[in-house]
Amino acid sequence: MLMDSETRYCPVCRADWQASEIPAKSRQYYAPSATHYSRLISIETRSYDGVSYWQCPDCKATWDRWTSALTARQFHPSKGLT
Ligand SMILES: [Zn+2]
């Protein structure tokens, strides 16, 4: 399964990642197909300028952005990526 910011449901815990609707005036900043914000957490690392991992805000499952593979790595606000 391909993970990206438009994926709606967590494949691990089935949480709904859809958040509020993106206001019409702000849609120009998002993908043309994007209609709602996402609760999915994007994680950036020092080694790459951009999203490297996605994390479910509910079960904390974390996926590699490039392979969409579930990883054992997890992000903690205080400890960083472990
Ligand atoms: Zn989840």
Secondary structure layout plus pairing:
Layout: E1 18-21, E2 36-38, E3 41-45, E4 48-55, E5 62-64, E6 70-71, E7 75-76, E8 80-81
Antiparallel strand pairs: 1-2, 3-4, 4-5, 5-6, 7-8
In short:
By secondary structure, this protein is mainly β. The protein contains no helices and eight strands.
The set of bound ligands, ions and cofactors reads:
zinc ion
In whole angstroms, the N-to-C terminal distance is: 24 Å
The largest sheet is: 4 strands, antiparallel
Write down the overall geometry. globular
H and E order: EEEEEEEE
Strand order of the largest sheet: 3-4-5-6
**What is the number of domains?**
1
Total strand segments: 8
Low-confidence stretches: none
Structural class: mainly beta
Compute the average pLDDT.
Answer: 89
Helix content percent band: under 10%
Report Rg.
Answer: 13 Å
Instruction: Work out the helix count.
Output: 0
Strand content: 35-45%
What does this structure look like?
0% of the residues lie in helices and 35% in strands. It is mainly β. The chain has one domain (18-76). Strands 3-4-5-6 form a 4-stranded antiparallel sheet, with no helix packed on it. Strands 1-2 form a two-stranded antiparallel sheet.
Main features:
mainly beta, 4-stranded antiparallel beta sheet, two-stranded antiparallel sheet, 0% helix, globular, binds zinc ion
